[in-house]
Amino acid sequence: MLSGGDEDVPDGIGMARLQWTRLPTAEADGASTSAPADDELFSGAAVESLDYEVIENYAYREEQAKRSKFWVPYYIMLKWLFSLLIGVGTGLAAIFINLAVENFSGWKYAATFAIIKHSYFVGYFVYTLFNLALVFSSVYIVTNFAPAAAGSGIPEIKGYLNGVDTHGILLFRTLVGKIFGSIGSVGGGLALGKEGPLVHTGACIASLLGQVTCGCAAGVAAAFRAPVGGVLFALEEVTSWWRSHLMWRVFFTSAVVAVVVRSAMNWCNSGKCGHFGAGGFIIWDISGGQEDYSYQELLPMAIIGVIGGLLETPIESSFLAYGKQCSLSDAHTNPEKVSIGFTPGALFNQLTLYITKWRRTYLHKKGRRVKIIEACLISLLTSTISFVLPLLRKCSSCPEVEANSGIECPRPPGTDGNFVNFYCSRDKEYNDLATIFFNTQDDAIRNLFSAKTFHEYSAKSLITFLVMFYSLAVVTFGTAVPAGQFVPGIMIGSTYGRLVGMFVVKFYKKLNIEEGTYALLGAASFLGGSMRMTVSLCVIMVEITNNLKLLPLIMLVLLVSKAVGDFFNEGLYEEQARLRGIPLLDSRPKQIMRNMNAKDACKNQKVVCLPRVSRVVDIVSVLQTNKHNGFPVVDRGQNGESLVIGLILRRHNFSDFVKPASSKGKSIDDIHLTEDELGLYLDLAPFLNPSPYIVPEDMSLAKVYNLFRQLGLRHIFVVPRPSRVVGLITRKDLLLEEDSNTVTTELQSTSVRGLLNGKMLGGNAHLGRPLLDNLVIG
C-alpha cells in the first residue's frame, strides 16, 4: 500500500506482457459507470459462478517460480492419492448408509410381523411410529443443520460442474446431513431412494480434495455397484468439460469403490452385519432368467419405451427472474418472466411441479416447523397406505417352486425375499401386495425382476401398487429430506413393465418369456424417459442385473423412451435445476444466437472499472455497492487514453486443488478498516488477471457461448474490433518439445524459434520491472 496524499505513485510490480485493448470511454458518452455482474442474474437462487480459469498474475507466477523440478511428479502423485482417498471414503459412506438402512428396516419388519400375530392395531402403531421416528430425524437434521442436504443434490452438482456454485452444497455439514438424512428418509419407508444422495455424498467427500467429478462417479459406483456406469454417468450427465487424464482418475476412483464395496459384502456374508443380507447393495441378478427373445416381442418392448417417455415427459417451466445484464442467459431467457407450459402425457412432472411450486410459494415460507410437520404427515400417510392396502387383498396359495431355486414360500418374517405372509390365515399362503410394500425398495425391485416366478403378482395388485406408489412419489418429492429419484423410478417402471410382461406371456403363450425381463425393461424405459441418459444408464442396468444378453433390449427401450421424451422437452435434472434457479448452459447454443452478436447480449449494460492504483476507500465503496465478482482494471496510456490492463476478482484463491468451498465466506462488511487504512492507495497490478479472454463486439453470440462453456469461463470482455495484428498462431506453433538436458521449451515452428534463443518461454526476467514500462501503443 502507498501512503495517502502521495501523488507520485510508483508503477508497481511488472507483469507478463499484457494484451492491451482500447476501452470505450464512458465519460465521452456521458454515461455513469456500473458493473457487469453475472451473479445478479441469479436472483432466483443463492448461486454464484465459479472461477475455473487459471489467473496467471504476479502472485501465481511467483508461486510457480518457487517450485522445484520435482513439483510436477509430486503434483501428479498427489492427485492419484486423492482419487484413492475419494474412492475409499465414498465406499465407506455407502457401506454405512446401506448397513443402517437395512438394519433399521430389518428391525422394523421383524418387530411388526411378530406383533401383528397378536394385535393388528399394535403392529400398525409400532410400524408407523418406527417410520415416523426415522423420518423426523431426517427432516430435523436437514432443516436445522444442513438445509442444502435436501433433495437428491444431482442438479446442484451438475450446476457446479457446469460452472455455477449453489451456496452450501459441498460443505462438510451438508455431507453429514446427507448421510444421516438419507438413512432416516429411506429407512423410514418414504417413496424415495438413497442413490441420488449418494452421488451428492461422493461429491461432498471429493470436494474436500478438489476432485468433484471423481466424487460423482464414485457415488454412482457405490450406489449401484456399477463402476463403469459411474464413469459414464460423470461423462454423460454431470460434467461440462472432460479431459482424457481425468477419465483415468475417475475410472481409478470407481474401481476403488468397487473393491471397497465388494470387501464389505464378503465380510457381511459371514453374518456380522445384522439384517444386512442379499438385499443390501443393489444388484438384481437375473442371469438365470430369459435367455432369448423373438421378433414378436420387439413391439411390446417398444411400447414399454413409449410409456416410459410419456409418463416422465417434463413440462416447460422457468422460474428464473434474471436481471438485465450482459450474459448468455439473456439470449435465450426472457427476463423477469415466469412461464409454465404443458405437454401431453406429462402427468408425473406436471403434478410434481404444481406441488413443488405450491410448497415454495406458500408452505415452506412459513418456517422450519411447517417443513417438519409436512414430512411427518407424509410419513404417516405412507405408513398407513403400505400397511392397510395389503389387507384388502386376499392371500394366495404358495406356488410350487423348484427345490434348488432358493425361493422360499412364505419367507421367514424380517428377511428379504419373495412371498410375504402378511396376516394370512394359513401357513402356506402369501400376500402379493405385501411382498412389494413390506420390503425395502431394493428387495421389492429384486422381487419384481425375479425370474421363474410366474403368477406371483396379480394384475390388480400391480395396478394398485403402481397408482399408490406413483402418487406417493409425486407427493414426497420436494419435502425437506434427502431424496433420490433413481430407485422410485425403477419401482414405477418395473411395475408397469411386469404388467406388460404378464400380457405378453398370456398373449404369446410361450414358456421362455419371463415377466421379470419386462420389469427390467420397464425400469430402463422410465429412467430413460425421465433422465434422458442413454449410454451410462444402459451400462448401469447391465451391471446391476448381471445379464449382458439383455443389452440390445435395454438399448432399444432407452432409445425409444429418450426419443419420445426429447420430443417434448428436456430431462428431469435440467428441469429440476431450472426449478431451483440454477442457470445451466446447455451443450449447444440456441439457434437464435447465430443471428446475434456479442454486443447484442450487452445492451443497456454499464461497466464499473477500477483504476490500477486505487484508494482503499474507493475499492471498499465499489465492493459494498456492487455484488459483482469481476471488475475491469484500467490505466492511462502514454497519450492519456484509457486502456484495460486486466480483470480483478472480488475473491482470490491460488490453491491447485480445492476451489473455494461452496459457502458465502467473508463479506466486505465483515472487514473493518481504520481511517488511516482507508486513505491508503493499493496497486492492483500484482493481483489482476493480465490476460482475460476477449472477444470482438461483432462476434457471433453462438461462438461466444461455445467459448464460454467449453473453457469454463466466468467473464469475457467484449471490446471493439482490434486495429492491428501482432501475430498469427497455428497448430504447429502449439507443438512444444521439452529438452530434459537444458530444461527449456522449444517451439516447433521455425518462424518463431529464433525469437526464443536465450530466453525461457514465459520467463521471469520482466517481473521485477514496473508494469507501465512495458506499455506499447499501436
UniProtKB/TrEMBL annotation:
It is a multi-pass membrane protein. One of its GO terms (cellular component) is chloride channel complex. One of its GO terms (molecular function) is voltage-gated chloride channel activity. It is found in: Membrane. It holds the Pfam family Voltage_CLC. PROSITE patterns: CBS. InterPro entries: CBS_dom, CBS_dom_sf, Cl-channel/antiporter, Cl-channel_core, Cl_channel_pln, ClC. Residues 688-745 form the CBS domain. The chain crosses the membrane at residues 80-101, 121-142, 170-192, 204-226, 246-265, 462-480, 486-505, 517-544. Keywords: CBS domain, Chloride, Chloride channel, Ion channel, Ion transport, Membrane, Repeat, Transmembrane, Transmembrane helix, Transport, Voltage-gated channel. Belongs to the chloride channel (TC 2.A.49) family. This is Chloride channel protein. The gene is ga13104.
